[in-house]
């Protein structure tokens, strides 16, 4: 009986003209487009400079900021009013004002007389731009001070070493998260349309009159999505290796184990929504709502520690929090199952509840 049910599910999946195509194109889009688009690294910030000092030292500071690669010098404005006018026109994202005694105070080792003003209509861009400018000024002071000390006979060697992301490439950080999103979206939406489609076509009635138990029926619905998710995971890992040169630092087997646990939740949720939905449109809307909530409070785009306390508490009910965390730890740090057992426990508990609820909620007529 199991073999016939599984054969039916796989035939039903591949009989649909759109699902197999989506299964191939979705990972390609996620891995080839999104790593470049979904980035918190902001460049080409429009910078306006008001240089009231007009010295070689102030010129070196301006060059330092422009050569950092994050800023595009729009204009060296003669007055603060002119700079503010450009910001009001949204042509300036940041204004760096260098006061007339800049070189004198710098040579004396005093606090630098500079000011930073940023356009915070886009709060993230403004805050990041202010951080970039502040960092450029600090690096300028360090380099200039180190040069003076070296000429005086002193030598200070400062070296920085980055772990797990050697070149601070944001794509490296996002690739495992995007794999988690791709698997969550596919294994959430496809099952949500499964039972409800059978309701609409009437084939579910033929299953309901058979002696198949509800648990066997739901499990046979779930198994094909394990196969689908493993295909998506393998495809994404291969694309990341071929296109970007990124490889998994940890065990591939551990990735598949966590993926299998995650499918218990997402596919179980999709089947649960399908049980309660009357049509495909209703199932799609409900699934989309849950997928958006899962992604926004998963820690993929913003750290969970930066969220309000009540939101941090809610994230413990979010399966994507555990899966994305495990994906990054395994893929970037090479963590073992023993290092992140708590993520596996969270997925197992939520998945068990979800599968139990799905089986109990399925109404099978005798």
Task: State the share of residues found in helices, binned by percent.
Answer: 55-70%
Major sheet description: 4 strands, mixed
**Radius of gyration from the CA trace?**
28 Å
Give, in spatial order, the strands making up the sheet with the most strands. 2-1-3-4
Mean pLDDT: 82
How many individual β-strands?
4
Total helices: the number is 16
The structure class reads alpha/beta
Uncertain segments of ≥5 residues (pLDDT<50)? 149-156
What is the H-and-E element order?
Answer: HHHEHEHEHEHHHHHHHHHH
Shape: elongated
Query: How far apart are the termini?
Result: 17 Å
Provide the β-strand percentage band.
5-15%
Please characterize this protein's 3D structure.
- This protein is elongated.
- The protein has a four-stranded mixed beta sheet, sandwiched between helices.
- It contains 16 helices and four strands.
- It has helices spanning about 1-15, 20-30, 35, 55-65, 80-90, 100-105, 125-150, 170-190, 195-200, 205-210, 215-245, 250-275, 280-295, 310-315, 320-335, 340-360; strands at about 45-50, 70-75, 95-100, 115-120.
- Mean pLDDT is about 80; it is low at about 150-155.
- Helix 8 (about 170-190) packs antiparallel against helix 11, helix 12 (about 250-275) crosses helix 13 (about 280-295) and helix 12 runs antiparallel to helix 15.
- Helix content is about 65%, strand content about 5%.
- The longest helix is centred in the middle third of the chain and has 31 residues, at about 215-245.
- Strand 1 (about 45-50), helix 4 (about 55-65) and strand 2 form a beta-alpha-beta unit.
- By secondary structure, it is of the alpha/beta class.
């Amino acid at each position: 009986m199991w073999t016939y049910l599984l054969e039916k599910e796989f035939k039903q999946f591949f009989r649909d003209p759109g699902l197999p195509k989506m299964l191939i194109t979705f990972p390609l889009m996620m891995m080839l487009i999104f790593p470049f688009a979904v980035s918190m690294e902001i460049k080409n910030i429009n910078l306006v400079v008001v240089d009231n000092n007009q010295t070689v030292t102030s010129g070196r500071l301006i060059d330092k900021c422009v050569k950092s690669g994050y800023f595009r010098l729009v204009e060296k404005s003669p007055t603060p009013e002119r700079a503010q006018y450009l910001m009001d026109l949204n042509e300036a994202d940041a204004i760096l004002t260098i006061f007339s005694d800049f070189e004198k105070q710098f040579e004396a080792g005093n606090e630098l007389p500079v000011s930073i003003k940023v356009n915070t209509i886009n709060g993230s861009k403004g805050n990041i731009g202010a951080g970039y400018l502040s960092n450029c000024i600090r690096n300028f002071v360090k380099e200039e001070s180190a040069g003076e000390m070296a000429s005086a006979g002193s030598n200070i060697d400062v070296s920085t070493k980055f772990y797990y992301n050697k070149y601070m490439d944001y794509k490296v950080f996002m690739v495992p998260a995007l794999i988690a999103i791709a698997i969550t979206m596919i294994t959430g939406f496809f099952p949500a349309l499964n039972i409800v489609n059978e309701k609409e076509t009437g084939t579910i009635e033929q299953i309901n009159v058979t002696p198949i138990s509800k648990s066997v029926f739901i499990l046979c619905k779930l198994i094909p999505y394990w196969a689908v998710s493993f295909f998506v995971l393998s495809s994404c890992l291969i694309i990341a290796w071929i296109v970007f040169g990124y490889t998994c630092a940890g065990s591939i087997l551990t990735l598949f184990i966590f993926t299998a646990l995650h499918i218990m939740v997402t596919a179980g949720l999709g089947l649960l929504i399908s049980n309660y939905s009357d049509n495909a449109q209703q199932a799609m809307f409900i699934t989309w709502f849950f997928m958006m909530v899962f992604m926004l409070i998963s820690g993929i785009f913003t750290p969970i520690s930066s969220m309000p306390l009540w939101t941090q508490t809610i994230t413990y009910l979010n399966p994507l929090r555990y899966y994305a965390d495990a994906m990054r730890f395994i893929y970037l740090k090479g963590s073992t199952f023993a290092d992140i057992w708590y993520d596996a426990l969270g997925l197992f508990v939520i998945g068990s509840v979800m599968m139990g609820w799905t089986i109990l909620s399925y109404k099978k007529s005798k």
